[in-house]
Amino acid sequence: MTNLQNFIEVHKERVENLFPEIIESLHCSSPLKKSMLYSLQAGGKRVRPMLLYAVLDSYKIDKSLGDNAAAALEMIHTYSLIHDDLPAMDDDDLRRGKPTNHKVFGEATAILAGDALLTHSFYLIASDDRLSTEVKIEIIKLLSFASGANGMVGGQTADMEAEGKSIDVDSLEKIHTHKTGDLLAVALQIGAAIAGASPKEQDHLYQFGKNIGLSFQIKDDLLDVEGDQEIIGKPVGSDEDNEKNTYVKLLGLNGAKEKLAWHTQLAMDELSGISADTGILKALAQYIGERSQ
Amino acid sequence: MTNLQNFIEVHKERVENLFPEIIESLHCSSPLKKSMLYSLQAGGKRVRPMLLYAVLDSYKIDKSLGDNAAAALEMIHTYSLIHDDLPAMDDDDLRRGKPTNHKVFGEATAILAGDALLTHSFYLIASDDRLSTEVKIEIIKLLSFASGANGMVGGQTADMEAEGKSIDVDSLEKIHTHKTGDLLAVALQIGAAIAGASPKEQDHLYQFGKNIGLSFQIKDDLLDVEGDQEIIGKPVGSDEDNEKNTYVKLLGLNGAKEKLAWHTQLAMDELSGISADTGILKALAQYIGERSQ
Q1: What is the distance between the alpha carbons of residues A75 and B144, in angstroms, rounded to a whole number?
Q2: Which residues of A114-131 are buried (b: 16+ CB within 10 A; e: fewer)?
Q3: All domains of chain B, ordered by start, with CATH?
Q4: Could you tell me which residues are beta bridge partners of residue A99?
Q5: In terms of Cα–Cα distance, which of B185, B93, B81 is closest to B142?
Q6: For residues B194 and B207, what is the distance between their CA atoms, to the nearest angstrom?
Q7: Are B243 and B224 in contact (CB under 8 A)?
């Protein structure tokens, strides 16, 4: 097993082990808890927590300092998937091969579970007694900017508005920078804030995050065309059926692959400006561009 | 014009004047902004900001220190109404006599506008440069607890689960304490945190908030039976049609009125433990129990 495989396995388990206790601690009815936990435990690569832990790893910072923020990142990502899957949005019955939240718990509970996951992620940061007040405010500022109208939700809206329309690569890039990239990049920024990295290194990590955010999305688009349905957990070609704007549609297979390689390289270049040991971050950037799911 | 009428008018305008700039500052598409602003500007009593400003008034604190928190409280309240009105939830076409958000902008945008309002409310607090870092973290902790699964969203879920079932007054009280009361009480707590009130006075303000939260809900139930449709902006008797559990249904008209008076008195009693000038808070507590909308 490579260093990276080991790192991914250990930290996937680390963040997944946090969820039951977080949800169990809530004072609310059992169906709401079950619905929240169902989607948190529905699998996934846990890329955002992974990136956060990788920054802490680079700076040799105690991983427990990143636990609440890692859980919060994954909770925000999960809420966005629950709401995206709703009949009024993408209307998906399956997510990672399992019934989507509203198929199991009903639409109303799914909406509320998403709302609760989002809200509680801020509570997790604010009540974290392992971080200084300054770092907590910095994290909440970064996270609320990257996940709201200025970031993820804004990107999601723009994506919806562009569906069925013909757009250019710049517009597509802007959409994905917000829809997917911002929350990936903020995982790096949060790691940098917890590690107390210098402003210069914080910026390198942010740029690294922006580039791998784009790589991530391009790879998603490629997997939709070239992936193995069994592994990616959804039908191959579903983007085309849904008239989605994708990098493959706009650039062709080879163009998309070239662009993926380019952003991965740009990400690598950013890491050379950082004095900490960025071995795992480099390996993660490679993995994001080469993964099979 | 009484002192209270003047206070309400001035501070309603104060918080409403904040919304256009807050929404305009967002970097996102115009439909999302319009949808967010539409519901923020759809009227309402602005009770939560009013309570916050009333605490600052009592302690002679500069109102501008409460502006971001006041806006955040109203944004969270507004997001909860947008999501509550959705077809999968209460399926309401009208809110305060105007078409609900999803009727104007479509369900998908309404869901996202709610998500964005919630998320940005935390950004507003975290990026407020008039408050100390300690106070900001305290506010975010209070707000995220009161509005998530532990508070408002939990109460909303419990309310939904109880619909059509026969429940007792204690269960109804528990539901409303969370669904409505927690966000009202937290407005008081946030005011106390900004004013730097002593822990003892903070607790009095919190208990005051809990009691007027219950008065508020009982009065809502009474207005649904006895109110003027033109003034309350929805059909009289709609709760009964929707098989909602209400105080009037469980206690009768007189029983509900007695309970309302009792909680208003309990709220007043809490204020006697506070050395600041609580004239406006007292008047607000009266107003909440006597209002016609």
Answers
A1: 14
A2: bbbbbbbbbbbbbebeeb
A3: 3-290 (1.10.600.10)
A4: A94
A5: B185
A6: 17
A7: no
Of B44, B36, B31, whose CA–CA distance to B97 is shortest?
B44
Q: Scanning the structure block, which residue is given the tokens 């973290």?
A: B137
Shortest Cα–Cα distance, B88 to chain A (Å) = 5
Q: For residue A98, report the phi and psi dihedrals to the nearest 5 degrees.
A: -115, 155
Give the Cα separation of B281 and B262 in Å (integer): 17
| Count of residues in chain A | 293
Give residues with Cβ within 8 angstroms of B105, minimum separation 6: B31, B34, B35, B38, B113
Interface test with A, best of B115, B117, B145, B190 (most A CBs within 10 A): B115
Task: In whole angstroms, give the CA distance from residue B155 to residue B149.
Answer: 8
CA distance B233 to chain A (A): 24
* DSSP-H helix ranges across chain B: 3-16, 19-24, 30-40, 47-58, 67-85, 101-105, 107-126, 133-147, 152-162, 169-176, 182-195, 199-226, 229-232, 238-241, 247-271, 279-290
- What does each of the 293 residues of chain A score in pLDDT, given as a tens digit? 689 999 999 999 999 999 999 999 999 999 999 999 999 999 999 999 999 999 999 999 999 999 999 999 999 999 999 999 999 999 999 998 899 999 999 999 999 999 999 999 999 999 999 999 999 999 999 999 999 999 999 999 999 999 888 899 999 999 989 999 999 999 999 999 999 999 999 999 999 999 999 999 999 999 989 877 776 666 677 777 667 789 999 999 999 999 999 999 999 999 999 999 999 999 999 999 998 87
- Nearest Cα to Cα of residue A32 among A91, A131, A108, A88: A108
The answer to whether B120 and A152 have CB atoms below 8 angstroms apart is no
Provide the 8-state DSSP code for A93: S
Q: Which residues contact B174 (CB under 8 A, 6 or more apart)?
A: B158
Beta strands in A90-221 (DSSP E): 94-95, 98-99
The tokens of B2 are what? 């009484």
In chain A, which residues have their Cβ closer than 8 Å to the Cβ of B86? Answer: 88, 111
- CB contacts under 8 A, B 118-157 vs A, are 118-120, 122-123, 125-127, 133-134, 136-137, 140-141, 144-145, 147-150, 153-154, 156-157
Which of B87, B123, B158 is closest, CB to CB, to A144? B123
Q: Which residues of B203-232 are buried (b: 16+ CB within 10 A; e: fewer)?
A: ebbbbbbbbbbbbbbbbbbbbbeebeeeeb
Q: Does A108 touch chain B (CB under 8 A)?
A: yes
Of A26, A141, A124, A18, which is closest to residue B141 (Cα–Cα)?
A124
- For residue B46, give the DSSP letter: -
CB contact under 8 A, B119 and A31: no
In angstroms, how far is CA B127 from the centroid of its own chain? 23
User: What is the C-alpha radius of gyration for chain A, rounded to an integer number of angstroms?
Assistant: 18
Contact, A222 vs A260, CB < 8 A? yes
Local structure of A99: helix, strand or coil? strand
Q: Kindly determine whether residue B120 and residue A148, on different chains, have CB atoms separated by under 8 Å.
A: yes
Across the A:B interface, residue pairs with CB atoms under 8 Å apart total: 167
Query: Cα separation of A81 and B11, whole Å?
Result: 38
